[in-house]
Amino acid sequence: MRKDWDTYFLDIAYMASTRSQCSRRHVGAVLVKGKKLLGTAYNGAPMGVPDCSEAGCMIVEEYELAPVDGEEKLVKKQRCVRTIHAEQNLLLFTDLHDRDGATVYVTDQPCWTCANMLANSGVKEIVYHRSYPKDAEKVEKLMDQLGIRFRRLEPYTPPPGVPTERVTS
Predict the structure, then answer these.
(1) Is 97 known as a binding-site position?
(2) What's the CA gap between 28 and 14, in Å, rounded?
(3) Nearest Cα to Cα of residue 40 among 24, 57, 20, 23
(4) Quick one: pLDDT at residue 67?
(5) How far apart are CA 116 and CA 153, in angstroms?
(6) Which of 55, 73, 104, 146 could cross-link with 50 by S-S, CB 3.0 to 4.6 Å?
């Protein structure tokens, strides 16, 4: 059975994610315009810098308000600051002309920073698979305000053999 275009391009985003050396999450993104694939990217360290698998994660601890048992509480979070997100790499290595009116397929719902960058990139649509609850509400509101189509592809099953959850906790 032939795959529909959304499934086809999200499969390619998942395949791009297999290049990631991030020990926390493999994320891939692709840029598509008129059914033409214009670029692929994945999360990882800057070019020429040892990645997390070679040098270890560069973890910072932050505190944020989060709902816990129905209450807003201060929660300690850890994040790696060595990694450039897949969406950021996609924007760095594609042309503005190509992005204008294009669609981005990404394995994960963009974080707030990536959403802001995509909002200014010229894309007209963002399609993702895995949700990112931390920023979901404000990202959805931003995309709605800007008229950028923003949707989670459901139902969807990634290609066999690609990482789909955190590699480590």
Answers:
(1) no
(2) 6
(3) 20
(4) 79
(5) 21
(6) 55
Q: What is the pLDDT of residue 166?
A: 63
**Which of 66, 77, 118 is closest to 96 using CA atoms?**
118
List the chain residues with pLDDT less than 50. 168-169
Q: 90-126: per-residue pLDDT in tens?
A: 999 999 999 999 999 999 999 999 999 999 999 999 9
Name the superfamily (CATH) of residues 5-48+84-152. Answer: Cytidine Deaminase, domain 2 (3.40.140.10)
Three-state DSSP class for residue 159: coil
pTM for the model stands at 0.89
87 is catalytic: yes
C-alpha–C-alpha distance, residues 7 and 13, integer Å: 10
114 in a labelled binding site? yes
To the question of whether residue 85 is assigned a binding role by annotation, the answer is yes
Task: Using alpha carbons, select from 101, 124, 122, 99 the residue that is nearest to residue 41.
Answer: 99
Q: Which one is catalytic: 62, 64, 87, 140? A: 87
Quick one: pLDDT at residue 169?
39
Q: Which of 149, 144, 88, 155 is nearest to 123 (CA)?
A: 149
